[in-house]
Design brief:
With about 270 residues, the chain is mainly β. The chain has 2 domains: about 5-155, no CATH class; about 170-270, Immunoglobulins (Immunoglobulin-like, Sandwich), CATH 2.60.40. It is about 5% helix and about 45% strand. The protein contains 1 helix and 19 strands. It has one helix spanning about 5-20; strands at about 40-45, 50-55, 60, 65, 80-85, 90-95, 100, 105-115, 120-130, 135-145, 150-155, 170-175, 185-190, 195-200, 210-215, 215-225, 230-240, 245-250, 265-270. The strands form 5 sheets. Strands 1, 6, 7, 10 and 11 form a 5-stranded mixed sheet that branches. Strands 3-2-8-9 form a 4-stranded antiparallel sheet. A 4-stranded mixed sheet has the order 15-12-18-19, with no helix packed on it. β8 and β9 form a beta hairpin. About 35% of the residues are buried.
């Protein structure tokens, strides 16, 4: 593991400690102990799903308490003792986009409605085996069923590159759109106009391998097999050398609006 990855893991642990410390009765981890061996990043990409908080078994991985003043960091501020209804909104990533440390083991990863937070309001749940030293991403995905209070979800491993070239950015594609065909991500350098395919065609719930591209600014697009037209586009995305990124597709492929919240969209989240 590189020094940079160790620093990232330590920061993820501190972020996790801060999040769990805000959760009232949930246990507060001892941040003086050795860093947790693994980590998970949580994405709320289920179309129309309300705001959620994420859990590993019954341990809350991301949440806040409502406050009686603003900003809540004011020394005179107190909390109401109730969970805030804000949670992680659709299209959002918990913990400010950072990983949350977790001990290796068997888990039930869950997304619960943050507004009510009762056992019946678990909208997504799946079993997960968290292995030592590995990073993962958990996604709510597909379309939210408001009657059944359910949404799809999946977990993928984030196999970080073992060698990092500071002149290169490392990019992969994840497809979280349930009504999409398999898509390939393309990145076109806005300066050189050179276009690179980021792996191959990725089906729903799939993830490609991290691909090295020269650092720069890129126009991104996904295409289905045999098509030269972008199904989803995003322009002027900065990919910084020495960094690792996941480009995640979310939304509804039938939406043609360029401003609708549930339109097909390419999210850019740094893994490190």
């Amino acid at each position: 593991m590189t020094p940079d990855m160790r620093r990232h893991r330590a920061f993820a642990l501190l972020a996790s400690a801060a999040l769990l410390a805000s959760c009232g009765k949930d246990p507060i981890p001892d941040i003086t102990a050795p860093p947790l061996a693994s980590a998970v990043k949580f994405f709320n990409f289920g179309v129309n799903v309300p705001n959620v908080n994420f859990y590993a078994n019954d341990t809350k991985m991301s949440a806040v308490l409502t406050a009686t003043c603003s900003p809540p960091t004011d020394p005179a501020c107190t909390t109401t003792g109730k969970e805030a209804t804000t949670g992680t909104a659709y299209g959002g990533v918990s913990a400010g986009g950072f990983y949350t440390g977790i001990a290796p083991g068997q888990y039930s990863l869950k997304a619960k409605l943050s507004a009510t937070n009762t056992a019946t309001d678990t909208v997504a749940k799946l079993p997960a085996t968290i292995e030592t030293g590995k990073y993962y991403s958990f996604y709510t995905s597909g379309f939210y069923d408001a009657t059944a209070k359910s949404v799809d979800g999946f977990l993928i491993e984030d196999p970080m590159p073992t060698t990092i070239d500071p002149a290169m950015a490392y990019v992969r594609f994840v497809n979280a759109i349930s009504n999409s065909s398999g898509m390939t991500l393309y990145a076109k350098n806005t300066t050189t106009t050179t276009e690179i395919a980021i792996g191959g065609s990725i089906a729903y719930k799939g993830a490609g391998a991290f691909t090295a591209v020269p650092a720069g600014t890129y126009d991104l697009g996904t295409r289905t097999a045999g098509s030269s037209t972008n199904a989803i586009s995003r322009t002027a995305v900065a990919l910084v050398g020495g960094h690792v990124y996941t480009i995640g597709a979310r939304g509804d492929m039938t939406v043609v609006s360029t401003t609708a919240t549930n339109r097909p969209f390419l999210d850019n989240t740094a893994n490190r």
